[in-house]
Amino acid sequence: MVPTLPFPRHPSDASDATSDVQQWYENELGWPTVPGSGSAGLPVRLVVGPRFDVLDVPAEAGFAALRHRGQARAPGFPVALSGDRMRLLVAAGSADELPGLLDWLEWGRLIPDLKAIGAGGHIEAPPPPGPPAGAGVLVGRENPQGAAVWLRPPETGRGTEIPLPTMSALGGVGGAPDLVRLVDTLATHCHRVRLRRACAQPLAFS
After folding, report:
1. Which of 68, 96, 184, 202 has the fewest CB atoms within 10 Å of its CB?
2. pLDDT of 81 above 70
């Protein structure tokens, strides 16, 4: 018996999916996007800077920080996973504040794994939230499939102010977390992960 092969996916299917993702972000959230190339398998990308900045940390450290703050599953500011990295959305302009914050918190350059993406940057757009998105990721430490997914998706509704972590002196929206405390917690757990991984490495003898 000759096995039945599925029909090849029509190129327009991928472009339609890309269009749907763009429309969700732009119409529901008012977030600007950069088109991906569906035929090349490139996802839509979110433009960083106009509406938010991003703190980018190892997923292991990010999960530990959220657990420490009691926010691993609680509603709050948006958090995404991309491979072994966690991306936490923070108020626009926060990327410029990060180096000074780390110095003020006396972390300085000790935390190379805590990165910021600001104006002019882009991140992969996770698929709009739904039952399949993020399934099985909440209890893990990373997303082994590599594609970006929402761990905690943004609230929808164009014009809705999403509570993003910000400097307390600037005021936040809807009880937004304080950026200083968040950065300090992330830095602490990034440092612990880095030390643990260094200790796990075999000693090199000359």
Report:
1. 202
2. yes
Q: Going edge to edge, which strands form the sheet with 122-124?
A: 33-34, 45-47, 122-124
Q: What is the dihedral of CA 152, 123, 117, 95, to 10 degrees?
A: -50
Q: In this structure, are residues 36 and 43 in contact, taking their beta carbons and an 8 Å threshold?
A: yes
The predicted structure's pLDDT at residue 136? 44
**What does the radius of gyration of the chain's CA atoms come to, in whole angstroms?**
19
Cβ atoms of 114 and 102 closer than 8 Å:
yes
Exposure on the CB side of residue 113, measured as CA atoms within 13 A: 20
The reported pTM is 0.80
Composition of the chain by helix, strand, coil, percent to 5 = 35, 15, 50
Region 67-91 average pLDDT? 85
Closest C-alpha among 177, 152, 151, 150 to residue 163: 177
**CA triple 99-64-51, angle to 5 deg:** 50
| Two tokens, residue 9 | 């996916």
Would you call 88 helix, strand, or coil by DSSP?
Answer: strand
